[in-house]
Amino acid sequence: MNLDPFQIFTKWYAEELDKSTNSLPAACCISTIGLDGYPNARFVSLKELKNDTFIITGPLQSRKGLEIEKSSKIAITFWWETTQRQIRIQGNATKINEEEAISYFDPRTKKSKIISMISEQGNTIENIDVLKQKFSEAESIYKNNDVVKPENWGGYAIQPIRIEFMEFKTNRFHQRTLFQLNNKIWKTTILQP
Q: What separation, in Å, do the N-terminal and C-terminal C-alpha atoms of the chain show?
């Protein structure tokens, strides 16, 4: 196996994209340490692998954002059905800068931008129709104008310290390789299935 985990990730991701017809290869489960001390997980979309970090975006005041601000320790899990592969990543998240956040926000659809502007993700609401009304009003206002990135929208770059690649085998001898960062060098270990 290649000794660069980022090259392996890129290769596996490309293979899943090539072979998959209806899955979402960019979907990954992000796990954080909850504000109440319990683990908290949700699915998000990986934006890209950049400078050996995994980039995710979203509202900074969401529960996810608040949890990352409290503890930068984070885990990412990918499951790719078509190629029968799992990737588990543990690392530390740092906020991306404003310029980078704008570069991820600008290509989004207008509807996605409006939702990001009007919704306080994860907060309670008495009636969803109130939010739908706010959306309709904003859609009219921004019909011929672009939506500017809200201040509370941004992203995180996750710098891994551990990456485990697991390839499922029909004989149950799944191939598991763990990469651990040690003094800026990736050390590999083979794990039992």
A: 16
